[in-house]
């Protein structure tokens, strides 16, 4: 039975991409079904 991914990713988001785009990139990199952020990542 596959195990889910659990944890926290600290991300220093570059300017020019939205918070949602950053979350989508991280989700794809880890193959995660669910992900979110705890506050705005926009500078």
Structure commentary:
Helices cover 28% and strands 0% of the residues. It has 43 residues and is an all-alpha fold. The chain has one domain. The N and C termini lie far apart (40 Å).
Helical stretch count?
A: 1
Strand coverage percent: under 5%
Average of per-residue pLDDT values: 82
Please state the CA-atom Rg, rounded to the nearest Å.
Answer: 11 Å
Structural class: mainly alpha
Percent range of helical residues: 25-40%
Number of strands: 0
What does the largest sheet look like? none
Detail the poorly predicted runs: none
Beginning-to-end CA distance, first to last residue: 40 Å
SSE succession:
H
**Tally of domains:** 1
The coarse overall form would be elongated
What's the layout of helices and strands?
Layout: H1 19-30
Quick description:
This protein has 43 residues and is mainly α.
List keywords for this structure.
43 residues; mainly alpha; 1 helix
């Amino acid at each position: 039975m596959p195990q889910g991914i659990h944890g926290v990713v600290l991300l220093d988001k570059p300017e020019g991409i939205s918070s949602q785009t950053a979350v989508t990139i991280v989700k794809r990199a880890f193959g995660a079904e669910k992900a979110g952020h705890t506050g705005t990542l926009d500078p």
